[in-house]
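Cross-check.
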Amino acid sequence: MFIKRILSACLIVSIFILFLTLTGCDNDIFKYSIHEIDSKYSGSNFNAINAQLIESLYNNPFEDFTFAVVTDSHSDYDKLDSAVRLINANPSIKFVIHLGDFTETGLLLQYEMTVHILNKLIVPFVVAIGNHDLLGNGFSIFKDIFGPTNFSFTCNDVFFIVGNNNNWESSIGDILQQFNDLLVNNQGAQYRIIATHIPFIDDARYFQEFLDNYQYLCEEYNVALSLHGHKHRYYYMPDFTSKTAMLIANAIVHDKFYLVHVRATGIDHEIVGF
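Predicted model, tokenized:
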């Protein structure tokens, strides 16, 4: 009995010492709280700054170009890193759009690990916010690091809109009216492309009337491509409307990303496996 008491006491002391070790100020395991929002990337404003950079680098309306699309990397940082290496090895790529869900639960650590990898890109990148990225304090962290969730830019006379359409996880307001206001002032562009995380054909999230209104918007303003992620599968609708194709990109976690080729003769895409 005495020996058992001694062993129990030793076990308790060992657990206490282990606890002190793990919770020490130099240990990264407990470095991040689920409530933490202050980032070392705070104020980077990646979306606004990189959108301006794309506009300044590529303003020739007669020049074809290619951009890369990645989506739904979640916490698979190794695969995101692999995609970044392949993108850097392709000199034809002008910029990258990440279509969101680059975190699993919207934690600051997950945001920072993603940014650490995206910063390895040798071309500009912009990011749409996904539904997973909005969990917890994700919305505040996103704005603090990336800046706006709804923004636009032009590349070689092609007008891009990137927007937040995660209607369950955030208040998106009248997103279609916001798109309309941007499109009405950019009708002279060669092509128009809308990029959001969730496809507007997701009937669990959007009523038929909402989808009808989005399709009308695409028809009215000659939107050439509606670009999305979220579904973790590849789906291409060349006739989403008579003027608009819809591309739903597969997830990075399934070893896929995409190249979108914009040419005077039209827009097409290819799947890159790795």
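The chain has seven helices and eleven strands. The chain has two domains: 1-31, 34-273. Passed to J.P. for a second look.
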